[in-house]
Design a protein that fits this description.
Blueprint: H1 3-14, H2 22-33, H3 44-63, E1 89-92, E2 98-101, E3 124-125, E4 169-173, E5 176-180, E6 189-197, E7 212-216, E8 223-227, E9 234-242, E10 247-250, E11 254-256
Parallel strand pairs: 1-3
Antiparallel strand pairs: 1-2, 4-5, 5-8, 6-7, 6-9, 9-10, 9-11
Helix pairs in contact: 1-3
Length: 257
């Protein structure tokens, strides 16, 4: 028997059966008495009431039958598992009084076992503070770090430019300039350098390479030439350089055109 039929029968058994009214019973009795061959009257009111009682009793008995064909509705089993709440946790305050704090309740799904660790929840005791509060931690002073100032690189004194000690002659021959000078009598010179200068003469050494017109490596030479088609006036000086590339002697300024 399916569930829908059981549900309908259960509803029919719970529904109250109304009794027939006196007018309805009399009407049914008149109809039966009017049939042909009817010889005696039947108390139909009592018969209808008895039939209604028998119907109600029969439905109730049918629902209480046991066995394979029972019509008794089966209710689903109810899970009686209830959430387990851990016992409250005790906390000791700074004043020494015990304050009970209710522990958080964790819902346990139905059908799942809850395991409580042996010994129950642990009690947490917070140490109180005495005196005027917590003293801040002190850090020992750190000795200042001494740093030596950076050492400046040693400065080299500019070379001393000696005073002019000999003369140089210059002559134009076409597009070339011819320079001549007397033999150098010192023993500290290694070479001659012809440089272009201003009218004031040599001011510092070494000079920019663009100002060097000729290098004469023979310290015994007395003559050199350069190509200069331009006839613009220019000033020149011949420099005697020693072994350490220092100036040992210079000539007077000479002008060309």
């Amino acid at each position: 028997m399916n569930d829908d039929l059981e549900r309908r029968l259960e509803q029919a058994g719970r529904r109250a059966v109304p009794l027939l009214g006196a007018d309805r019973v009399d009407d049914i009795a008149r109809r039966l008495d009017a049939r042909p061959g009817h010889r005696r009257a039947i108390p139909w009111a009592a018969a209808a009431a008895a039939a209604a009682v028998l119907i109600v009793v029969g439905v109730a008995v049918a629902f209480r039958r046991d066995g394979g064909g029972t019509l008794q509705p089966v209710s689903p089993p109810m899970d009686t598992a209830t959430p387990t709440s851990p016992p409250p946790t005790s906390t000791t305050t700074s004043a020494g009084s015990l304050v009970t704090v209710p522990a958080a309740t964790t819902a346990v799904p139905q059908g799942q076992a809850t395991t409580v660790p042996p010994g129950g929840p642990t009690s947490t005791t917070q140490p109180g503070t005495s005196g005027g509060g917590t003293q801040p931690a002190t850090t020992p002073p750190t000795a200042p770090t001494t740093t030596s100032p950076p050492t400046a690189p040693p400065t080299t004194a500019p070379p001393v430019i000696p005073a002019p000690s000999f003369t140089v002659g210059v002559q134009r021959i076409g597009d070339r300039l011819v320079f001549t000078w007397p033999p150098y009598g010192g023993s500290d010179g290694t070479q001659f350098v012809l440089v272009r200068v201003t009218a004031a003469g040599l001011q510092h050494w070494p000079v920019d390479p663009t100002r060097v017109a000729r290098v004469v490596p023979d310290i015994g030479a007395t003559r050199t030439t350069i190509d200069k088609p331009d006839t613009t006036r220019a000033a020149w000086q011949l420099v005697v350089v020693g072994a350490d590339r220092q100036v040992v002697a210079i000539s007077q300024v000479v002008f060309s055109n």
